[in-house]
Design goal:
The structure is a homodimer. Chain A is an all-alpha fold and about 240 residues long. Chain A is built from 10 helices and no strands. The longest helix of chain A has 26 residues. Chains A and B meet through helix 7, helix 8 and helix 9 of A and helix 7, helix 8 and helix 9 of B. The structure holds a DNA duplex (30 and 30 nucleotides).
DNA sequence: CGATGACCAATTATCAAATCTGGTCACGAG
DNA sequence: CTCGTGACCAGATTTGATAATTGGTCATCG
């Protein structure tokens, strides 16, 4: 089978898995049903993904990749997008607009079930943490973030703030009336007030940083792409 | 039975319930065992608390009351304690230092189980929300908090930030090395940066506000006290 | 050579019997 | 008379043995 046909079939499998997960939740979706919906035999699924877990992890990764590409494009279009509050806002909106990612971030155990707590997710989260670590290192070097908190404390605070914005909604049972955009704006304001310095950053500096930061993103992107599809038979 | 003896017995029941909940978790604790540990008969428990749920709710409320009194005392001792970042810090340390409250705030379903999601807790949370609403109203009137976010957005952000600091720990599986104090400091810094205005507030203003705010606290305190014990027989 | 579905071990769903427990209340102690 | 108690009951929960499902493999076939 040609590599392009192989990849196309992999996409069909991922499409099927994504649809079924959204419809019935992770726990209820069987490999058999995914195969059926993709119009192939069950064994064929295993030519693409070593285990059930790997398949659904790939679904999540593929969804994340879309958001990733959006981030890169946005920074390329406007380097000011690399500022923490702009990124936080964009990620928030991007996650909330993708049902699978939203389920993962809000620990929606009904849709994603155990998958969200699996070890394989941990590696992704860890890599993402490393990325933001390097990213804030860069921003700090160039005087774009505050230093009133030391680095571990600042990272911790950033993690806590974002965790909070992703998890608070289900807990405030209808007690607030903020639409998606307002919540994203609130998050952006908080992040800006907490970690960014006052004043408008130098556009030249931003442009220079943009390329470096995009390089970081691309690096992680490659790791993630590798995680989506297996290799075609005979190729390994 | 004298009222004081009645109340003392109620405390013994609460002590027993608290100890057993911490030892075995909400789900596994039976009224029978609570009664046995308190050295009384099972029926007697029901002279104090209408239902099992009410009993454990009272345990939680009693624990909260301790923290509440600490808050009031702190503001009385130093009116600057009424500033949001000081309060957030104190509440955080107070909650983390009380196993039952910590379990509730961190949604530790192993210890508290379903109780944390019960409706009766919701009323408490709602009252607490009302309190913070009025509290921030007061602070706003006197120019102590920012207005770069409108009130609903600011309340939402505050809720999200605090939610985050209470929930992020179990998610960052050992990936950070911040002790309790540092985390509390980080929370305080975030809150100050996000909702307080720059500069040192006028001590006279703080003193004047302190009494009003303490009045608010006392008001909620009374509601909570009423929720701890039932009334002695013949008294109702 | 790649795709497939029959096949297997192991997990998970089912369901009735047995056990437990929240809540009541008739009774007995004082 | 009042207050405390534990036997009692209905409903919920656990148990355990059985049946059904399903992740993953691989001999077979096109």
């Amino acid at each position: 089978m040609s590599e392009s046909r192989y990849l196309e079939r992999g996409e069909r499998i991922l499409d099927a898995a994504a649809e079924l997960v959204l419809r019935w939740g992770y726990r209820r979706v069987t490999i058999d049903e995914v195969a059926k919906l993709a119009g192939i035999g069950k064994g064929t699924v295993y030519l693409h993904f070593k285990t059930r877990e790997a398949l659904f992890l790939a679904v999540l990764i593929r969804d994340s990749l879309g958001l990733f590409d959006q981030m890169i494009a946005a920074i390329q279009a406007d380097p000011a997008e690399l500022l923490p509050h702009r990124q936080a806002r964009r990620v928030y909106l991007g996650v909330m607009g993708r049902p699978l990612l939203r389920a993962m971030f809000s620990r929606d155990s009904d849709v994603l079930g155990a998958l969200a707590h699996e070890t394989s997710i941990a590696r992704l989260t860890e890599m993402k943490l490393d990325l933001t670590g390097e990213l804030y290192g860069l921003l700090r070097e160039h005087g774009l973030v505050r230093t009133d908190l030391d680095i571990p404390a600042q990272q911790y605070a950033l993690g806590a703030i974002q965790t909070g914005f992703y998890l608070v909604d289900p807990m405030m049972a209808g007690k607030h009336e903020l639409d998606l955009e307002s919540r994203a704006d609130a998050l952006a304001t908080v992040i800006r007030n907490c970690v960014e310095v006052a004043g408008t950053p130098d556009p030249d500096l931003l442009r220079a940083l943009a390329s470096k930061i995009i390089a970081l993103f691309e690096q992680l992107r490659l790791v993630m792409v590798a995680g989506v599809h297996g290799t075609p038979p005979k190729g390994d």
